[in-house]
Amino acid sequence: MRYKKKWYKKVLLFLFFAAALIWTLVPVYIVISNSFRRTLDMKIMPPKLLFTPILSHYEKILTLDNFSKYFRNSAVIAVSVTALTILLGTLAAYGMKLFKSRLGQHLSNVLLLGKMVPAITILIPLFMMMNRLKLTGTFAAPILAHSCMSLPFVTWLMASFIRDIPTELLESASVMGCSRMKAFWLIIVPLLKPAVASATILVMQTSWNELVFSLQLTNLKTYPLTVGVARYVGAVSVDWGKCSAAAAITMVPIIIVGFAMQKYLVSGMTAGAVKG
Question: Labelling 24: which of 16, 96, 174, 227 has CA 20 to 30 A away?
Answer without folding.
Answer: 227
